[in-house]
Design a protein that fits this description.
109 residues, mainly alpha, 71% helix
Length: 109
């Protein structure tokens, strides 16, 4: 449930950024933000109790936490104008995406 809410929030942030900055497109890949999203995934995995990893869940976690999270971080940094907003968005998106690995919909239940 947390991962679904995070994915929806990421998508809203990305769409808002793309609508606002429709004239200036950049093909730049945010590699540092991807690394921050991956670190957030690892931290989230540790925080939810290191659940067993299944390939399908891991793929979903990495796509949502790293790829989508880095794009949302780029959008957050662009919309707010602050560098730290991008880093926080990347790490929190990664940590929230780690809940895809849980067998239950909510952590700590």
């Amino acid at each position: 449930m947390i991962a679904i809410a995070a994915v929806l929030a990421d998508l809203v942030l990305i769409v808002a950024y793309r609508v606002r900055a429709a004239s200036s497109s950049s093909a730049h890949t945010p590699w540092r933000l991807m690394a921050a999203g991956l670190a957030g995934c690892a931290a989230g995995w540790l925080a939810v109790g290191r659940p067993e990893i299944v390939w399908g869940d891991l793929f979903l976690t990495l796509v949502c936490g790293v790829v989508l999270g880095s794009e949302a971080a780029k959008a957050g940094r662009g919309l707010s104008g602050r560098t730290w907003a991008g880093w926080v968005t990347a790490v929190l998106s990664g940590a929230a995406a780690a809940t895809w690995l849980l067998p239950d919909p909510l952590p700590f239940t």
